Amino acid sequence: MTYVSFAGAEKPLDFVAIGRLCIDLNANEIHRPMEETMTFTKYVGGSPANITIGMSRLGLNTAFIGKIANDQMGRFIADYLRRNNIATTNVVNDTTGAVTGLAFTEIKSPTDCSILMYRDNAADLLLTPSEVQESLIAQAKVLLISGTALAKSPSREAVFQALSYAKKHGAVIVFDLDYRPYTWTSAEETAVYYNLAAEKCDIILGTREEFDMMERFEDNPDHSDHITASKWFDYSAKIVIIKHGKDGSIAYTQDGVGHRAKSFPARVVKTFGAGDSYAAGFLYGVMQGWKLEKSMEFGSAAACIVISSHSCSDAMPTADQVHDYIERCNRGEITAS
Amino acid sequence: MTYVSFAGAEKPLDFVAIGRLCIDLNANEIHRPMEETMTFTKYVGGSPANITIGMSRLGLNTAFIGKIANDQMGRFIADYLRRNNIATTNVVNDTTGAVTGLAFTEIKSPTDCSILMYRDNAADLLLTPSEVQESLIAQAKVLLISGTALAKSPSREAVFQALSYAKKHGAVIVFDLDYRPYTWTSAEETAVYYNLAAEKCDIILGTREEFDMMERFEDNPDHSDHITASKWFDYSAKIVIIKHGKDGSIAYTQDGVGHRAKSFPARVVKTFGAGDSYAAGFLYGVMQGWKLEKSMEFGSAAACIVISSHSCSDAMPTADQVHDYIERCNRGEITAS
Amino acid sequence: MTYVSFAGAEKPLDFVAIGRLCIDLNANEIHRPMEETMTFTKYVGGSPANITIGMSRLGLNTAFIGKIANDQMGRFIADYLRRNNIATTNVVNDTTGAVTGLAFTEIKSPTDCSILMYRDNAADLLLTPSEVQESLIAQAKVLLISGTALAKSPSREAVFQALSYAKKHGAVIVFDLDYRPYTWTSAEETAVYYNLAAEKCDIILGTREEFDMMERFEDNPDHSDHITASKWFDYSAKIVIIKHGKDGSIAYTQDGVGHRAKSFPARVVKTFGAGDSYAAGFLYGVMQGWKLEKSMEFGSAAACIVISSHSCSDAMPTADQVHDYIERCNRGEITAS
Amino acid sequence: MTYVSFAGAEKPLDFVAIGRLCIDLNANEIHRPMEETMTFTKYVGGSPANITIGMSRLGLNTAFIGKIANDQMGRFIADYLRRNNIATTNVVNDTTGAVTGLAFTEIKSPTDCSILMYRDNAADLLLTPSEVQESLIAQAKVLLISGTALAKSPSREAVFQALSYAKKHGAVIVFDLDYRPYTWTSAEETAVYYNLAAEKCDIILGTREEFDMMERFEDNPDHSDHITASKWFDYSAKIVIIKHGKDGSIAYTQDGVGHRAKSFPARVVKTFGAGDSYAAGFLYGVMQGWKLEKSMEFGSAAACIVISSHSCSDAMPTADQVHDYIERCNRGEITAS
Question: Which residues on chain B are in Cβ contact (under 8 Å) with A125?
Answer without folding.
Answer: none
